[in-house]
Amino acid sequence: MEAVAPIVKFTSLKKRYGGGPLILDTINLAVQPGDFISFIGPSGCGKSTVLKLVSGLSPGTEGEVSVLGTTPRQARDRQTFIFQDATLLPWLTAQKNAELPLRLRGVPAPERRARAREMLALVGLDQARAYFPRQLSGGMRMRVSIARALTLAPQLLLLDEPFGALDEMTRNRLNEELLALRERSRFTAMFVTHSVTEAVFLSNRIVVMAANPGRWYAEVRVDFAYPRQPELRGRPEFQANVNEVSQLLHQVEETIGV
Amino acid sequence: MKKTSPVLLWILPVVSGLVFVALWYGVRKLSGLQSWILPTPVEIIEAAWRERVRLLGAAGNTVVGALAGFLLAGAFGFITALLLGVSRSLRASLYPWLLVLQMTPVIVLTPIIVLWAGPGLPGIVTVTWLISYFPIVANMTQGLLSTDMNHVALFRMGNASRLQEMLLLRVPSAMPYYLAGLRIAATLAPIGAIFGEYMVGNSSGGTGGLGFLVYSYNTQIKIPALFATALTSCLLGFIFVAAVSWLNWAVLHKWHDSYERHDH
Fold it and tell me: Structure pTM?
């Protein structure tokens, strides 16, 4: 059988900012096509830095990062970043915000309008296109942010605690919607979160990280088939996975003395 | 805090104004001061009516100088701030000197300006420009440098060019700052023009703006008319500020938090 080229590959990667302490220590990682991989760990474990390295927002100090077979910067056309904050431009309507990445790439207006409209409909916001961000709820803003990311049909989606600021109900619903979008658009996802339930519900792989310096502590595989339904959260096997990850997190905190 | 009724909010300033006018009459009556030292409000309004043609003509002239200087400051302030916002080295080389310029009192510079720009409108416009330019530059530059770092990351991720980042991100996000600068400039521009007229009028006969009237009424000891000129200047300043407030509303009310609707 032929091995598939990984979407993201870290080879003995080390990262420090300036002359500061080591943020990430000797990371090896291969993200396979179709993976939904979550990163979880105490604050300061460098999980957000992992995403910054992949996006090329911040370079590695030692070792190598390859994304979609090339450098992070070269791969920017095929990956998008979803921030914790929806990062919508307040002076643009939902529609214009969703068009922004296409506009930056010089896509002609009629084409980008149609594409943004389609993506907003996909996240259930076809009625809210003319609204400005401040007229939208937190959940709706995050939906616009996701629609904006999907206009580029990215192969790789980087999500940095996108639902961290939302209430649990909204968060659960957006988790389900994100998986539905994944069924449609077939992206690979790297997801940073603080929530164990969220990580288990979304991912097929969960990386538990330790801090000082940030490093891999354990990896947990979650084997439920996609598409996953909301009822999954109630199943004992799901709970078993949640417990396993929670225990690992507990161990991590003990080892670093939090 | 207890909510004040909106009707009361309209009535209160009227009441305090009336109290002030009553005090004014009281002081005049009790002190025995003459009209040419402290005219009563009625005498001022009579003087304003008597001198209405001169006052309106002068106000018209002042508006021309103030508006020209204000618009120049608005345009050049915008461009200067763009340059300062684009390049750190440009900022380092220019900003201290802009501060020095700002620190130099305009009163000292005015004779030099009149010497170089010439008396009349060019001198007046230059003084106005000078006095209203700096708040615009300072505010707008601050705005360009205050862009949300997540938005900048979003643009970097989108492979945005420097020009795109400037036009689509930094300039729009600096608009509230620019408009705040314009608002300060709007209060300063009429002052600059009147001051310019006062100085230029002193040296060459002037253009007949409000500043020249101040000079002329003062030398003729027409004190009620002098007060009437002050009143006219005050109204002029009010119109300037109201115009910029309207512009501020027009640009920002749809999206900016400062115009957050309470029914939402």
Answer: 0.85
